[in-house]
Amino acid sequence: MGSWYRTLSLTAMAMVVAVAESNACRANAAAPSVTIKQGAIEGFAQNDTNVFLGIPFAETTAGENRWKAPQPVAAFPNGHFAATSYGPSCAQAMSGTAITNQSEDCLSLNIWTPRQAAGRGLPVFVYIYGGAMVTGGSSNAQWQGFNMARNDVIYVNFNYPFGGDKSRIVLGGHSSGGVHVDHYLWNHPETFLAGAIEMSANAQSGPAIAPSGVALKQVVQDMLDAGVSLDCTAENYSLDCLRAADTYAFQTTYFNSTTNTWFSPSIDEITRFSNYTERFQSGKYPTSLPLLVGNSDQEGAIFGYVYGSENTDFSSWIRTFDADLAFVPEAELIAAYNESDYPSVSQMSGASYGDARFLCATDAMLQLRAAQQPTWIYRWFGNYSNVLPIPNLGPSHGSEVPFFHGGKECFSLLEDVTTAEQQLADYMLSWFVAWIKNPQAGPGWAQASPTDGPLARVGVPEHEEEIVMSTTGAYNTRCQNVYLPNYPYYPEVQNPVLLAEEA
């Protein structure tokens, strides 16, 4: 992860700045192009924007480069690159190409710029997609940059394992993308960023942590059991042996049934830390950086279904690797959730997941940061059944993302989009873009404060085109009473192999 941060900071940033600044001078070109030190990049015009897709910001991470720091791109073949289609997604926890083409030559970025640029020095918004650090890609229709670019914001997203004025770059992400944003901040206390947004998640949001070496050993055994030919065994595997295997060879049936297990991040005290309070108090965090954080009102609703096969017994669920709740005493968790408050035990279990991974992680970090850092918090209440893959989930995890992106093209794969949905998306985009352009001014409501402070309710039914103010204290009782006292013990490292055997 640390190597990804460094690659993004150096190579990708240089590319984005060069592309966006040069493109500002060619706003009227029929097919935009720009030349950087690696060669010419040729984009295309679409929907009143200039678009550059699939620009590589590092060499392939396959073969000998697997599990090593990404190497900067030396030069484009034949001196030019046709940036006209998305690059493949990185290797992930799903088999084959049914959802997305995968490759280890995946470190690419996409840029949308205004067609009629107002000049140089435009603000830049860099977005990191979510997917629990095991799935996802930059080509998802719900996060495209057309709406941002039409509002004079340069928009960038990228695949992972800036152009304006680099002092006006805002970094944002949702779910595991929000985790990456937070880790970036903890790794760069002297950051040049102008602002950051962490949607749903932060550095205390998971995924769960396994002991070093346990997970990869199990992956090797699974591969051998599946008939993959390797020059090593699970007892004496080496990275060199595994570098010789094809990407898809890792994606055995068992691997894909435990998608959040085998490649979770590790705490190395270099890129991911065990004590964020201590780090914050010692000045190793950018406390002057404007920060926007928030959650969906029912974050965990969708996870009641995602983990439906293992969460029907709450006392067992809270000890699983996926639940990532071992840092909270069992008695406290059982007392905190009343089965009669939920349609099913699975939905109650999903609520605990939403609390631990998202809502209460946000609340805990807010206690730490809001007293010193200019921070604003929102809560999403938009209730539309056509946004998430399972209907009638309400404002659950991820349902806000296409609205923050302004809808329109970002609604292109949704069915039965209403005028009201687009109006809400227009409203969300308007204040969000204004904040990206001037983070110090805030998004239009009062700054957060620890424990019980201003909270903006957005997307509230019958009040969609306004901010309805409330307080964090109206929603964080369980977070304050159950989770906050125990976050100093997070994460508790668990052995997923032993847990599976016990189950």
From TrEMBL:
Keyword flag Thylakoid: no
Taxonomy, superkingdom: Eukaryota
Residue ranges occupied by any Carboxylesterase type B domain in the UniProt entry: 31-160, 162-459
KW Hydrolase (keyword) present: yes
Residues forming coiled coils: none
Molecular functions per Gene Ontology: hydrolase activity
Regions crossing the membrane: none
Pfam family, one: COesterase
Any one biological process term the GO annotation gives: monocarboxylic acid biosynthetic process
Enzyme class: hydrolase
E.C. number(s) listed in UniProt: 3.1.1.-
UniProt similarity note: Belongs to the type-B carboxylesterase/lipase family.
Annotated protein name in UniProt: Carboxylic ester hydrolase
Source organism per UniProt: Penicillium salamii
